[in-house]
Design a protein that fits this description.
Structural class: alpha+beta
Oligomer: single chain
Strand content: 15-25%
Helix content: 40-55%
Radius of gyration: 30 Å
Largest sheet: 6 strands, antiparallel
Distance between the termini: 118 Å
Shape: rod-shaped
Number of strands: 6
Length: 194
């Protein structure tokens, strides 16, 4: 009887020790989870602050093109409020140079290809225009980044800038060069430029 009672006490003590260890482990896991959540919240706030500081439009979409986030620069450039465009498809913000609609694959490909072929000094994307809320088309340039999630889905980040002024300046420069070249080529007098 005494041995049986001693065994029961040992079992009870073991169960209490296991319960105590499980409780301690749960408390530690909760502390780690809270610390990770705080760090994640800080990172999200930092990302949101950075997105508001940049001058380029930052559009975050799902891979199917549905807009998830639209920074204040995007609101200014495209003329839409974030609340009005989130949930819509990004294709509504772009058109072909002819004014026709583009597909989501064309947008992804054009932004990818533009930066494989061109440098910052070259022309912006040739076949794609941004479309303001008013319907006005404008020249765009930008970058695309695809972020793969652990659940197998992806997020697309488009960084878009309005380069209409730059394009117009480049066109004006080319036009002026052609005019001056024409003057030199058609002149019967000798011209010497120093």
């Amino acid at each position: 009887r005494f041995a049986r009672a001693a065994r029961l006490v040992k079992v009870r003590d073991s169960q209490l020790a296991l319960l105590s260890a499980a409780t301690s482990t749960a408390d530690i896991a909760q502390d780690v989870t809270l610390a990770l959540k705080e760090k994640l919240d800080d990172s999200v706030r930092q990302l949101e602050s950075t997105a508001e500081l940049i001058c380029d439009a930052l559009i975050i979409c799902h891979s199917d093109g549905l807009i998830d986030s639209f920074n204040s620069a995007a609101e200014r450039i495209f003329g839409w409020k974030s609340k009005d465009v989130v949930g819509r498809n990004v294709i509504s913000l772009f058109r072909r140079i002819s004014g026709g609609e583009v597909t989501i694959e064309e947008i992804w490909n054009l932004f990818n290809e533009a930066h494989e072929e061109f440098t910052e000094l070259d022309d912006p994307i040739e076949y794609l225009r941004g479309k303001r809320r008013s319907g006005e088309l404008f020249w765009v340039d930008g970058n695309i980044t695809r972020l793969e999630r652990t659940d197998g889905t992806s997020i697309i980040m488009l960084l878009v800038r309005d380069v209409t002024n730059r394009v117009e300046e480049q066109r004006q420069t080319k036009l002026n060069e052609m005019r001056y070249r024409s003057i030199f080529e058609q002149s019967f007098d000798g011209i010497f430029v120093v």
